[in-house]
Specification:
Blueprint: H1 2-15, H2 33-40, H3 44-55, E1 58-62, E2 65-68, H4 72-78, E3 85-86, H5 107-117, H6 123-154, E4 160-162, H7 164-181, H8 187-190, E5 195-197, E6 206-208, H9 210-224, H10 240-264, H11 266-271, H12 277-283, H13 294-325, H14 329-340, H15 350-353, H16 357-370, E7 379-380, E8 388-390, E9 393-395, E10 400-402, H17 405-409, H18 412-415, H19 435-440, H20 454-471, E11 473-476, E12 484-486, E13 490-492, E14 498-501
Parallel strand pairs: 2-10
Antiparallel strand pairs: 1-2, 3-7, 4-14, 5-6, 7-10, 8-9, 11-14, 12-13
The protein binds protoporphyrin IX containing FE.
The site of protoporphyrin IX containing FE (HEM) has 23 residues, from helix 13 and helix 20.
Length: about 500
C-alpha cells in the first residue's frame, strides 16, 4: 500500500523532470494537492492569479501542469491544428457509460459529436429558439412586476427588494429546459428551485433542488478533476462536500433521465410540434449512421442543460451588479435600449437589440471582469507529438498547459491601470480597444473545443438584459462588494440586496 502511494505521488514528478526549472508553489512541484486544495476552497483562479504575481509568466500548478499567463500562448495551446487534447481533468466530469461532446478527450470522437450537433446551434436554428426565450422572459418580467406590486402595496416601499440570483437561475433553467426538452421546468411559475429526477429510466420521479444540485456537481467535479482517479472513492471522503457532491452528480443525471423519458413518451412524441434540441439530437447519426441510443441522448442533453443554464444565470447576475453599482452605466444603458426598442415593446426582440453597441460593451465587460470561466482550461500535449516551443519555453508530450483566463482578463499590462474597474467604454473600437486586448479576451474559449452555444448565449443575454433594464429601475441600498465562489465556473454567492421598481415602463406593461 505504502509503495503504491509512493509511486502514485512520485510518478508525476519524474514525468515532469524536464520542467522542474519552472517555479510554483512548493506543494505543486511534487503533488496535485496544491491545486486540489485551492479548488476545494473554491478559489482556484484567485490562487493561480496570486501565484503568477509571485512567480511570473510561467507557474507550475501541478507537477505536470504549467499555467502560462501570456496572450501569445492562447493560440498555441487552444488553437486549431496543434493537436492538443483535453487533459484527464475532464475525466471527473464523465459519466459511467458515455462521454459527451464536452468531456470526451478523444479528437475523432469529439469531431464526430461536434459535427452531429452543430446544426442545433446554427444561426437558423438559434433563430427558431427566440420565441421560446421571449416567452420565458415575459413570465420573468411578469413575476418581478408582481413582486414590485406586492411590496409596494404591503409595505408601501417605492422599491421592492429582490434576491436576483435565484430568479436569474429560474429563468435560465426554464429557458434551457424549454429549448432542450420542449417544455420549461416551471421554476418561474412555481417560484421555486424544483425539478423532477429519476434514478433510472424505470424509476418513479422524485423532486430535487436543481440549481443547488448543479452548483454542487460543478464544484465537486472541478475539484476531483485534480485527482480523477479518486472519483469512485470520493463519496467515502470524510467531508460532506464530496458526499453531497457525488449525490448531486447522480441527481443531475436523474433530471436529464426524467426529461428524456417524458419527451420520448409515445403520447408526447406524436403530439409534439416543437423543434427542440432533443428532437434535433434524435435526427443525429453516430459514426455508423445509426441513431443515438437513449443513453447517448441523455448524456448529450445533460451537457446542454449543464452548459446552458448556470453560465447564463451567473453572467446575468453580474451584469445587474456591475450596471447598478457603477456610476453612469445604468442611465447610459437604459438610454441606449430605449432608443433601439419600439414603443410598447416591453420584451424586446433580438432584432431590436442585437446591434446596440452599449449593450454589447456591457456584456463583454461583464465577461471580462466577472469571467464565468475563470480557470485555465487544461490541455495536454499528446504522447507521440513533437516537443513544442511556447513563449520561448519547450514543452513535451504529456505536459499539461493552460492559460489562466481570470489572470489575463485582469492583467494591468493588457487592460491598463484601471483593469479592475468596470468600464464598458473600453470596448469602443474607435477609441481604446487594442488588438492585443481582443486577443486576450476568451469568455467562450478558443479553438475546436470553444463553446458551441455561443450564438444562443449571446442572443439570450441581449434579450434578457434589454428586457430587465427596459422594464425596471434599480438601485443598490448599500455600498456592497459581490462575493464569488468558484466551481467549474465562477459564481456570485448571491445578489440579495438589489432593489427594483417597475415604475419606469410599468404603465405600458401588460401584467400577467
Ligand atoms: C454565458 C454563457 C456561456 C459561456 C460563458 C460559455 C463558455 C464556454 C466555454 C469557455 C467552453 C469551453 C469549456 C472547456 O474547454 O472546458 C464552453 C463549452 C461548451 N459550451 Fe458554453 N458557454 C455559455 C453558454 C452555453 C450555452 C447556452 C450552451 C448550449 C446549450 C453551451 C454549450 C456548450 C457546449 C456543448 C460546450 C462543449 C463544446 C465542445 O467541447 O465542443 N454553452 N462554453
Amino acid at each position: 500500500m505504502l509503495a503504491a502511494l509512493v509511486v502514485y505521488y512520485t510518478l508525476p514528478v519524474l514525468a515532469s523532470r524536464r520542467r522542474r526549472d519552472i517555479p510554483g508553489p512548493f506543494l505543486a512541484t511534487f503533488t496535485n494537492f496544491w491545486l486540489f486544495y485551492q479548488c476545494r476552497r473554491k478559489k482556484r483562479s484567485l490562487a493561480v492569479e496570486l501565484a503568477h504575481k509571485k512567480y511570473g509568466k510561467f507557474v507550475r500548478i501541478q507537477p505536470n501542469h504549467i499555467s502560462i499567463a501570456a496572450v501569445d500562448a492562447i493560440q498555441a495551446i487552444y488553437g486549431h491544428g496543434n493537436g492538443f487534447l483535453k487533459s484527464d481533468y475532464y475525466d471527473a466530469f464523465a459519466g459511467p457509460k458515455h462521454r459527451s461532446i464536452f468531456n470526451t478527450r478523444d479528437r475523432d470522437e469529439h469531431s464526430r459529436k461536434r459535427r452531429a450537433v452543430s446544426h442545433i446551434f446554427s444561426a437558423k436554428s438559434v433563430g427558431q429558439f427566440e420565441q421560446y426565450i421571449c416567452n420565458n422572459i415575459r413570465i420573468f418580467v411578469g413575476k418581478w412586476n408582481g413582486l414590485c406590486d406586492r411590496q409596494q402595496t404591503e409595505v408601501e416601499a417605492t422599491y421592492a427588494q429582490i434576491d436576483a440570483l435565484p430568479w436569474f437561475s429560474y429563468l435560465s433553467f426554464d429557458i434551457i429546459g424549454d429549448l432542450a426538452f420542449g417544455a420549461p421546468f416551471g421554476m418561474l411559475s412555481s417560484e421555486d428551485d424544483l425539478a423532477d429526477a429519476c434514478k433510472t429510466v424505470d424509476a418513479a420521479p422524485t423532486c430535487v433542488a436543481a440549481i443547488e444540485v448543479l452548483n454542487r456537481q460543478g464544484e465537486v467535479s472541478a475539484t476531483l478533476g485534480c485527482y480523477p482517479q479518486l472519483k469512485p472513492f470520493s463519496k467515502y471522503f470524510p467531508d460532506t462536500f464530496f458526499q453531497y457532491g457525488v449525490e448531486a452528480i447522480d441527481n443531475m443525471a436523474g433530471i436529464a433521465i426524467e426529461r428524456v423519458k417524458r419527451r420520448l413518451n409515445p403520447d408526447v412524441l406524436t403530439k409534439n410540434t416543437r423543434v427542440d434540441m432533443l428532437a434535433k439530437l434524435m435526427e443525429s447519426r453516430d459514426e455508423h449512421g445509426d441513431k443515438l441510443s437513449r443513453d447517448e441522448l441523455i448524456t448529450e442533453s445533460l451537457t446542454f442543460l449543464v452548459a446552458g443554464s448556470n453560465t447564463t444565470a451567473v453572467t446575468l447576475c453580474s451584469v445587474l451588479y456591475f450596471v447598478v453599482s457603477t456610476p453612469g452605466v445604468l442611465e447610459r444603458l437604459q438610454g441606449a435600449i430605449d432608443e433601439a426598442v419600439s414603443p410598447g415593446a416591453d420584451i424586446p426582440s433580438f432584432d431590436m437589440v442585437k446591434h446596440v453597441s452599449y449593450l454589447q460593451w456591457v456584456i463583454w465587460e461583464t465577461f471580462r471582469v466577472h469571467s464565468a470561466f475563470s480557470l485555465g482550461l487544461p490541455r495536454q500535449i499528446p504522447k507521440g507529438n513533437a516537443p513544442v516551443d511556447i513563449c520561448e519555453q519547450t514543452f513535451y508530450p504529456g505536459d499539461v498547459l493552460s492559460v489562466p483566463t481570470y489572470t489575463l482578463h485582469h492583467s494591468t499590462d493588457i487592460w491598463g491601470p484601471d483593469a479592475e474597474a468596470f468600464i464598458p467604454e473600453r470596448w469602443d473600437p474607435t477609441t481604446r480597444l487594442t488588438t492585443h486586448q481582443k486577443d486576450a479576451f476568451m469568455p467562450f474559449g478558443v479553438g475546436p473545443r470553444a463553446c458551441i452555444g455561443r450564438n444562443l448565449a449571446e442572443m439570450e443575454l441581449k434579450c434578457i438584459v434589454a428586457a430587465v433594464f427596459r422594464n425596471f429601475e434599480f438601485k443598490l441600498e448599500q455600498d456592497i462588494r459581490m462575493d464569488y465562489r468558484e466551481g467549474f465556473i465562477r459564481k456570485p454567492s448571491s445578489l440579495k440586496w438589489v432593489e427594483a421598481s417597475w415604475d419606469k415602463h410599468g404603465s405600458a406593461y401588460q401584467k400577467l
